[in-house]
Amino acid sequence: MIVSDDGQEYVAESFCRQFYPWVRYTKGLQKGPAANRNNGAKLAIGDWLVFTDDDCLPDSGWLKAYAEAIQQYPECKAFEGAILPDDWNLLKKDMAECPVNTEGGCFWSANIMVKKELFFNIGGFDKEYIIAAREDQDLFYRLQGLTNIMFCKNVIVTHPVRFISFSKRMHMLKSRSENYLYFAQKNHRSLGFTSKKEIIFKGGIMAQLRALNKNLKSLKLKSSLINMYAIIAIYMPVYIKCFFSNETYS
Q: Which of 19, 84, 91, 201 has the fewest CB neighbours in a 10 Å radius?
């Protein structure tokens, strides 16, 4: 097992040496989660790379289940497993946040496995993603044309439900929207977008409106305010700028 520690204080190093001396520890590059995962992957000596995050708790049979999947689906060079919240009821509350994957098609880095040779052949995670969002789905789209990707519902990790403060969520909006724009422009063919204007309208404004409608029905008022702010202050100004543009993607 490899731990690539991208934290500011590197507290994981002493923890690993004391309790898990068999773990191979390395310091991260301080260039974001995508670059950090690539950094850890370079140290792997096996044929497969299995990724999870530092806040996740894999089931006791996690790696065994992945090994069985390799035997069962030898044509597949990429797999994703299930991600479950540690408290389903807590997830229903306003400002609660947790990635949940019970059906597949997400390919979130908290629980994925990729053939190492293929991973490096396509360049690994795109290090231009400097926050933890979309870099794993970007990898998913690049893998799709090269291999079947199997979802294994019995390969499970548990992810904690977290409450993100209103001010922090507001502060993160700009970087998240920029991250999404980079992702959507890069993968516009896979996403079905033909122009930047379409990305902003369908992927930005309409997506926020759908989230707003859902949050209002659930009486999540703070989340609803964030959706409205994202539409008015983040996406609408960009949409207005490109409204009269004829910029299209080939």
A: 19
Indicate whether 55 and 154 sit together in one domain.
Answer: yes
- Return d(Cα 105, Cα 107) in angstroms, integer: 6
Instruction: Identify the H or E element spanning 240.
Output: helix 236-243
Please list, in sequence order, all residues whose beta carbon lies within 8 angstroms of the beta carbon of residue 116, skipping any fewer than 6 positions away.
Answer: 41, 44, 46, 47, 48, 49
Cα–Cα distance measured from residue 137 to residue 121, given in angstroms and rounded to the nearest whole number? 17
Dihedral in degrees, nearest 10, Cα atoms 213, 219, 221, 227: -20
pLDDT digits (tens, 9 = 90+) for 83-100: 999 999 999 999 999 999
Say how many C-beta atoms besides its own lie within 10 A of residue 245's C-beta: 10
CA 69 to chain centre: 22
As a residue count, the chain comes to: 250
List residues bridging with 148 in a β-sheet.
76
What pTM value is reported for the model? 0.91
Residues 52 and 118 in one domain: yes
